[in-house]
Amino acid sequence: xxxxxxxxxxxxxxxxxxxxxxxxxxxxxxxxxxxxxxxxxxxxxxxxxxxxxxxxxxxxxxxxxxxxxxxxxxxxxxxxxxxxxxxxxxxxxxxxxxxxxxxxxxxxxxxxxxxxxxxxxxxxxxxxxxxxxxxxxxxxxxxxxxxxxxxxxxxxxxxxxxxxxxxxxxxxxxxxxxxxxxxxxxxxxxxxxxxxxxxxxx
Amino acid sequence: xxxxxxxxxxxxxxxxxxxxxxxxxxxxxxxxxxxxxxxxxxxxxxxxxxxxxxxxxxxxxxxxxxxxxxxxxxxxxxxxxxxxxxxxxxxxxxxxxxxxxxxxxxxxxxxxxxxxxxxxxxxxxxxxxxxxxxxxxxxxxxxxxxxxxxxxxxxxxxxxxxxxxxxxxxxxxxxxxxxxxxxxxxxxxxxxxxxxxxxxxx
DNA sequence: TATTCTGCTATACGATCGTATAGTATTGAT
DNA sequence: ATCAATACTATACGATCGTATAGCAGAATA
Lengths: 202, 202
Known about the structure:
Two copies of one chain form a homodimer. The first copy, chain A, contains eight helices and one strand. By secondary structure, chain A is mostly helical. Chain A has two domains: 12-58, Homeodomain-like (Arc Repressor Mutant, subunit A); 61-202. The longest helix of chain A is centred in the last third of the chain and has 30 residues, at 154-183. Chain A starts with 16 loop residues before the first helix and ends with a strand. Chains A and B meet through helix 6, helix 7, helix 8 and strand 1 of A and helix 7, helix 8, helix 9 and strand 1 of B. The structure holds a DNA duplex.
């Protein structure tokens, strides 16, 4: 089985049916949630039948595992491609930017994670743990290469990285909804208030 | 395995069956989401049969409407009880505190709103619109009584109020999960980083 | 060419869902 | 005491869910 780690921006028609199914499910999960998405809806969106979904992914749990592994691969691929040169701060900034680019290229990632991470009881996957591990390894790598900032403890730094990158994206839909309701749909977009999310040492 | 979520039976015992059903559904929705909560689970949690749930609320939509009206009533009741005396800033601060107290007394409100507000596509209710209206009226009242701050436009101020009060509560579970994973379950609790959520004029 | 394997469709099964309906018990007004 | 409305239970129906199974077409292997 070949594994595509790098992101190939190919259109759906060039993909295998298995990848098309995963992508269809990914998009539906991000928009409507796993519970509200039936296997039949996934099959229809991918242009196949229900049986083929089961054939490739066994169960709905297996489908979610494939999606979450795909998300981890996207994060890893984004981080991996920035070279380890420059100061620690420069590397960290370059990684932040690479992840931000990946997120804006893959809005389904944000939608999926928003549901998964903010629904601690309902979500049955392990995506938060996997991404936290990845971020922890990212911080550890920086520490090995140069001198990581000692101003923050490692844990705080990992949490800070993830919250800064995801928190604003998670809350933005709420701001957008309220802005539309209060200011009307055709108000000047650049009057919209800016969301700021950060963590502080206690 | 029977797990009671949220409401203590002591409180429940002297309520009408209709209120018990609403409270049971409210707690279950907050913890597991509406889609993952069946009418039969609600009935069992309330100690009645499915038929009675339908008798009192007609449909599942009707049940959600009752819950969301209850939430609006809780917000209104919290705001209503602070007297209109002192400076505008003092009134606003007292209202913020009253709402914060209400939220800590009713954790199901936070859980329910977190699901509803962060799921703009999936949610079928109107709770965000209702609460935004309420907050807008709150700002308007302050403007009538005294002199509301002109430093921010009304819309920004409304959004600021709601984001400050809810944003931190929404993201906190994510911080908690990561903190537990990284620092271990028995780490010093006061080392945990603090979440800061705010909005800025653009 | 014969056989096996893989990608894929079609259909069906049991569980669970929201809801409708019919009937019983309890209350409240006259 | 009567009677109607309300509170509540029991059961059933149709739809939809995840998944199991059987079979077919075409490529691969020998």
